[in-house]
């Protein structure tokens, strides 16, 4: 891979210490390799330069929403230490419900020959409402409740890509976090997969 990513070993230890201080059994994975879900965001944000040092925090495979909110809350102090916290997940991410024809025939994942299905649009709107209309602890509760939304299982065939939303809600959901939360960008691919970029709070 020609693009040079820069692991932040010192920052990684700081993350481990914060998580352990909050009661998590966090450890370093010295054999972890970069995968597309972890570097695509960085490449797009810093395309023509050496990116800033990065630390990757893994999700817990039990996918407990409250657990991941607490993880984000434990790392919240880093927001005041020149650290950008990114949750790289998905608004609607169910590979079983996507349309693959244009990707397989033409290598075009952004083709939208038909509109997204109603269940995808409904859950996408529910997440947007949760993020844009709530701040502080209400944000954490609103995003957590979405796992009980009647369209959740259609929107997320597995829970892994939703955990990042909970992690970020935890990191930006303290009482003093009053927003504003903004929708900055969005795209649909494979007809039913929605990627949305939010900014929670203001840059200082």
UniProtKB/TrEMBL annotation:
Ranges in a coiled coil: none
Keyword Zinc assigned: yes
Cofactor names: Zn(2+)
Keyword list, A-Z: Dioxygenase, Metal-binding, Oxidoreductase, Zinc
All copies of domain Extradiol ring-cleavage dioxygenase class III enzyme subunit B, residue ranges: 3-174
GO molecular function, one term: zinc ion binding
Top-rank taxon: Eukaryota
Entry keyword ATP-binding: no
Matches recorded under PANTHER family: 4,5-DOPA DIOXYGENASE EXTRADIOL-LIKE PROTEIN, AROMATIC RING-OPENING DIOXYGENASE FAMILY PROTEIN (AFU_ORTHOLOGUE AFUA_7G00640)
Family: Belongs to the DODA-type extradiol aromatic ring-opening dioxygenase family.
Protein's UniProt name: Putative aromatic ring-opening dioxygenase family protein
Source organism (scientific name): Botryosphaeria parva (strain UCR-NP2)
Lineage, broadest ranks: Eukaryota, Fungi, Dikarya, Ascomycota, Pezizomycotina
